[in-house]
Amino acid sequence: MQNWHPSLSKALARLQAFAPRAGKDYARLRNHDFGPDHRDNVSALSPWIRYRILTERDVVAQTLSLHSATAAEKFIQEVFWRTYWKGWLEMRPAVWQHFLAERDQASDRLRQDSDQSALFKQAEQGQTGIAGFDDWARELTDTGYLHNHARMWFASIWIFTLKLPWSLGADFFLRHLLDADPASNTLSWRWVAGLQTRGKTYLARPDNIAKCTDGRFRPCGLAEQAEALDGPEPPPAQAIPQAISQRRADFSGQVLLVTPEDLHPESLIDGRRRPARVLVAVPDAFAPDWPWGEKARAFIDDGVDDTVARLVAMDLPVTRLDSLANEPLQKLAEAHGVQQILTPYAPVGPVADRLAMLERALAAGGIALERVRRDWDERAWPHARRGFFPFRKQIPQLLAKAGLSQ
Ligand SMILES: Cc1cc2nc3c(=O)[nH]c(=O)nc-3n(C[C@H](O)[C@H](O)[C@H](O)COP(=O)(O)OP(=O)(O)OC[C@H]3O[C@@H](n4cnc5c(N)ncnc54)[C@H](O)[C@@H]3O)c2cc1C
Is the residue at 190 inside a domain? Predict the structure, then answer.
């Protein structure tokens, strides 16, 4: 079974092992879920990529060192799905807030409906009697990972067969996935439900499940139709918030605050622009609103340790930060004679919300919190205004700008 240890070295080892299969093999077999002990047909890299222990750029660069862009087209497109979802949500942050509100309302309704509440518990515990669905529920809670196709089947059965609220399913995923991600998770659940691409739903079919699980599961009694759920139109795209672009950021003599949204600071800082101090915030610094489950917390906690160790090895002065209280941060900035703290841009989600609070508190003391956006996101996000199809057309150009064309 795949072991996700949150260190960069383990991530690179998995990337190296998988990269030879990222070409035609991936395109042919990626939709198959052969079970938790057979993950060779997919990368299983998402927990590392999610927190940017491994950057998308490095994943694509390693892939293109072994395959042509045409042979690896499918895999590279999948890597860009994450970028696309993030950019889409960045332009419509209200969709994340709407999900949170809907989840809370659905939880309240559940408390008053004993039948639905019992079904919800059975679904979470993998006791519905539906082949495959129950196994994926247990796999998710046991391992923190599900294959992409299993996520699609699970969400579809949750919504259209069990008729449970989609927002509670999305929340169940967020509480157990190692790669729990506001954009990829919320927007994928919305997509299955027919809320994202209006009217277009995803229906899990027994034949497809049997074929793509190598006959492990052929569930009975699944919904035969998937009528799109009702919901408001997504809001129009708004401007992506301002940030300093990676190319222009100068870290020399500055204080850099690293958060769990981006645990690879060394690729942001180049040797010539060394900060005076790097602060690495642990998940507890985001309490009491830390939203992900225990597995993700433990993963990130260890990921922070690994990040700290790598920075120490680079001779950078590092502090592990257990709290985001503004006063100590302000004193630290003053001690270094700076009037700003730099931080990698955190996309829409709880970390970004917590940073916005910190920004207001620091501003009152005359210290600015400045966000630095990676070139990868800066170039790609503006193309995520509409669907993935027009976004996908930009990929060759985005690769060229990232210095990754062949
Ligand atoms: C209902 C649902 C919920 C999801 N929730 C999350 C989530 O919370 N966090 C998360 O990281 N992904 C989520 N995904 C996307 C996708 O399922 C996972 O990223 C993928 O399964 C990770 O496995 P892998 O690394 O083996 O992927 P591979 O197939 O090896 O793909 C390579 C990389 O491409 C990216 N990727 C692949 N497929 C997608 C996709 N559909 N959307 C976005 N990025 C993708 C990931 O970074 C992945 O590591 C969700 C998908 C669905 C259908």
Answer: yes
In this structure, the answer to whether residues 262 and 339 fall within a common structural domain is yes
Q: Are residues 182 and 282 in the same domain?
A: no
Structure-token match 């729990």, residue found? 180
User: In whole angstroms, what is the distance from residue 255 CA to residue 305 CA?
Assistant: 19
**Is 63's C-beta closer than 6 angstroms to any atom of ligand 1?**
no
Q: Which of 132, 141, 138 shows the shortest CA–CA distance to 211?
A: 132
102 and 37 part of one domain:
no
Q: How far is the CA of 46 from the centre of ligand 1 (A)?
A: 6
Could you list the residue range(s) of the whole structural domain that residue 259 is in? 247-373
Considering the domain boundaries, does residue 316 fall inside one? yes
Which three-class secondary structure state does DSSP give residue 318?
Answer: strand
Q: Identify whether residues 177 and 269 lie together within a single domain.
A: no
Residues 72 and 136 in one domain: no
Give yes or no for residue 173 CB within 6 A of ligand 1. Answer: yes
Q: Whose Cα sits closest to atom 6 in ligand 1?
A: 185
Local confidence pLDDT in tens for the 406 residues of the chain: 888 999 999 999 999 999 999 999 999 999 999 999 999 999 999 999 999 999 999 999 999 999 999 999 999 999 999 999 999 999 999 999 999 999 999 999 999 999 999 999 999 999 999 999 999 999 999 999 999 999 999 999 999 999 999 999 999 999 999 999 999 999 999 999 999 998 899 999 999 999 999 999 999 999 999 999 999 889 999 999 999 999 999 999 999 999 999 999 999 998 778 999 999 998 888 877 777 899 999 999 999 999 999 999 999 999 999 989 999 999 999 999 999 999 999 999 999 999 999 999 999 999 999 999 999 999 999 999 999 999 999 999 999 999 998 7
Do residues 251 and 353 share a domain?
A: yes
CA–centroid distance, residue 125 to ligand 1 (Å):
23
CA distance 360 to 338: 17
Q: Which residues pair with 371 in a beta bridge?
A: 343
Q: Are residues 108 and 147 in the same domain?
A: yes
In this structure, is residue 236 part of a structural domain? no
128 Cβ partners below 8 Å, 6+ apart? Answer: 119, 122, 134, 162
Is residue 268 domain-shared with residue 347, that is, in the same domain?
yes
Q: Is residue 288 part of a domain?
A: yes
What tokens does 298 get?
């433990």
Into how many domains does the chain fold? 3
